[in-house]
Write a structure and sequence with these properties.
The complex is a heterodimer of chains A (109) and B (115).
Chain A lengths: L3 E4 L2 E5 L4 E7 L6 E6 L6 E6 L5 E4 L2 E5 L5 E6 L8 E7 L11 E6 L1
Parallel strand pairs in A: 2-10
Antiparallel strand pairs in A: 1-3, 3-8, 4-5, 4-9, 6-7, 7-8, 9-10
Chain B lengths: L4 E3 L2 E4 L5 E6 L6 E8 L3 E9 L2 E5 L6 E5 L5 E5 L8 E8 L10 E2 L3 E5 L1
Parallel strand pairs in B: 2-11
Antiparallel strand pairs in B: 1-3, 3-8, 4-5, 4-9, 5-6, 7-8, 9-10, 9-11
Classes of the chains: A mainly beta (109), B mainly beta (115).
């Protein structure tokens, strides 16, 4: 079956630092989605990537769709306390989204 | 427009009981997916319904079942509850492939505790 690896599993950083996380898969996908889940809420879509090599920004967030179509990266610049949450990279296979365990981010003021 | 609504938000059951959770999708969305979230396993896919048909199913035992009604509202049922079924159950709606891009809109979840 499809293997999805997201790293790191957790990050504990200070406000103002930049953050990087990535995902790799054993399969090729045509779409990569990045979601964020805040405590007590359901996940919310941050960025969607539809083309290999695509680089997309959403405010302080930048995500890239790997050229091999097997990986994706998310960067957060100048982190703030409200960036706290779990970040999921999600390859889209059409019918179901495999969320995995995500990256848990904690930001201290 | 109204988001995805899940009821109940919290519930407590005992082992052996059964539970039914409800999800009302965003108006116009025909696909409803269910996910189980636990600290140890993360967010795991249960099943997805589109136009009242189950299109895809995750790797869960037959105790977990669902259905979708003609108005796209969905229910999931867990029978013979076990302690390990304690989790946050999330429902998500979308336009559904091939209509949409696969973006999911989640509800706030139903937190089930099994004693």
């Amino acid at each position: 079956g499809q293997q999805l690896n997201q790293s790191p599993q957790s990050m504990f950083i200070q406000e103002g630092e930049d953050v990087s996380m990535n995902c790799t898969s054993s399969s090729i996908f045509n779409t990569w989605l990045w979601y964020k889940q805040e405590p007590g809420e359901g996940p919310v879509l941050l960025i969607a990537l539809y083309k290999a090599g695509e680089l997309t920004s959403n405010g302080r967030l930048t995500a890239q769709f790997g050229i091999t179509r097997k990986d994706s990266f998310l960067n957060i610049s100048a982190s703030i306390p409200s960036d706290v949450g779990i970040y999921f990279c999600v390859p889209n296979s059409g019918y179901a989204l495999n969320f995995g365990k995500g990256t848990s981010l904690l930001v201290t003021p | 427009k109204a988001g995805v609504t899940q009821t109940p938000r919290y519930l407590i059951k005992t082992r052996g009981q059964q539970v039914t959770l409800s999800c009302s999708p965003i108006s116009g969305h025909r696909s409803v997916s269910w996910y189980q979230q636990t600290p140890g396993q993360g967010l795991q896919f249960l099943f997805e319904y589109f136009s009242e048909t189950q299109r895809n199913k995750g790797n869960f035992p037959g105790r977990f079942s669902g259905r979708q009604f003609s108005n796209s509202r969905s229910e999931m049922n867990v029978s013979t509850l076990e302690l390990g079924d304690s989790a946050l159950y999330l429902c998500a709606s979308s336009l559904g492939w091939p209509s949409g891009t696969g973006e999911l809109f989640f509800g706030e979840g139903s937190r089930l505790t099994v004693l």
